[in-house]
Specification:
This protein has helices at about 5-10, 20-30, 50-60, 70-75, 90-95, 115-120, 135-145, 160-165, and strands at about 35-40, 65-70, 105, 125, 145-150. It is of the alpha/beta class and about 170 residues long.
């Protein structure tokens, strides 16, 4: 099988994966469809809370861009030495497979501030545990007329809690 045949057999959602160097151009094309929403995270072990959150984020615009923390960036978040459990390529592919997601890219930095500056989304969305007014990302998005929103988490769902449950053999 040659590389073109191999690409033809890949699921369509792999087209949503985008190297950061191409992301701004892809986002410009999505903006022709309406407001672009951006969110980010590690998304280590995909669960119902993630799927609900991403669907709610998408409902705020015509397209949803997800910035995934690279493996190195995720490790610096202090979630434990073994985290992330899934590598960045696998995490990005799972997020891209969701219907609510339009484009997935990744970032190496500790925060997505530079990536947000490159993509210039219309709406920034974070989880409900963030005080949006204290985030540099909020000020940046508002500087070009965008908005920032926090979405309440679905109670009872977190990757950290799920990992602990698995370790306890529950």
């Amino acid at each position: 099988m040659n590389s073109l045949q191999a690409q033809a057999t890949l699921p369509h959602f792999f087209n949503k994966l985008c190297h950061r160097s191409e992301a701004a151009q892809r986002v410009l094309a999505l903006k022709t469809l309406g407001p672009v929403v951006f969110t980010n995270g590690v998304f280590d072990v995909l669960h119902r809370g993630h799927a609900t959150y991403l669907a709610q984020a998408r409902a705020l615009g015509a397209s949803l861009i997800v910035g995934i923390n690279s493996d190195a960036s995720a490790k610096r978040l202090g979630k434990g030495p073994e985290r992330p459990l899934n590598n960045e390529a696998d995490r990005a592919a799972l997020i891209a497979a969701l219907e609510s997601v339009s484009l997935v890219t990744w970032f190496e930095e500790d925060t997505p501030l530079a990536l947000i500056g490159e993509l210039r989304p219309d709406v920034l969305v974070k989880g409900g545990d963030y005080d949006m007014q204290k985030l540099a990302e909020t000020a940046l998005v508002q500087s070009w007329g965008g908005t920032a929103r926090a979405i309440t988490f679905v109670d009872g769902y977190s990757t950290t809690a799920l990992v602990q449950k698995i370790r306890q053999g529950a």
